[in-house]
Amino acid sequence: MRRISKTSAGRRAADILKGNDGTSIVLVTIIAILVITAVVILRMSTSSLLAGSDRQYRQDQAYMLATSMGNSLDNLIVTKTIRLTDYTNPNGTVLITDTPSLPKSSVTATVTPSGVGYVLEVEATVAGETYIYSAYYSRAGNSDNFTRQIL
Asked: How does pLDDT run across 80-110, given as a tens digit for each residue?
């Protein structure tokens, strides 16, 4: 078996390409197509990854807005600053609607009587992503004290 040195193989390839103009053009075209395809694939994968991470970030923001408002309202209900017994509309009563400083965001809290208790729903929307925080308040005896159960 004869050994081929790299310099002689490189010289042979160079001789083939120098002698055949069409072969050089075909080789350059194939390399250009491969490079362009690699760039397009890389661009598509990065844009899809970035879109997924942006969506998750907006979902996290909506979750934080809803739970923060829900916990604040829970504190007001426990301290009896907000009396749930005042809200008797069976279709629900809007407690508060807020527009936070986040772009395209809103938070709405609604109280609805349900059986012997009340349901508090806080809906937060950030750029099309929505999270709903729900809590059920049941009355402890005949008093105005309510206990919360997160749904």
From this structure: 888 888 888 888 888 888 888 788 889 999 9
Instruction: Give yes or no for a contact between 80 and 149, defined as CB atoms under 8 angstroms apart.
Output: no
In a domain, 54, yes or no: yes
26-49: string of b/e by CB count within 10 Å (b at 16+)?
eeeeeeeeeeeeeeeeeeeeeeee
pTM (global) more than 0.85: no
What is the rounded CA–CA span in Å between residue 102 and residue 57? 12
Q: Does a structural domain hold residue 55?
A: yes
- Identify the CATH number of the domain in which residue 116 sits: 3.30.1300
Strands ordered across the beta sheet of 129-139? 93-98, 105-114, 117-126, 129-139, 146-150
Structural domain that includes position 84: 39-150
Q: How many domains does the chain have?
A: 1
CA dist 137 and 9 (Å) reads 83
Nearest residue to 84 via CA among 139, 29, 4, 13? 139
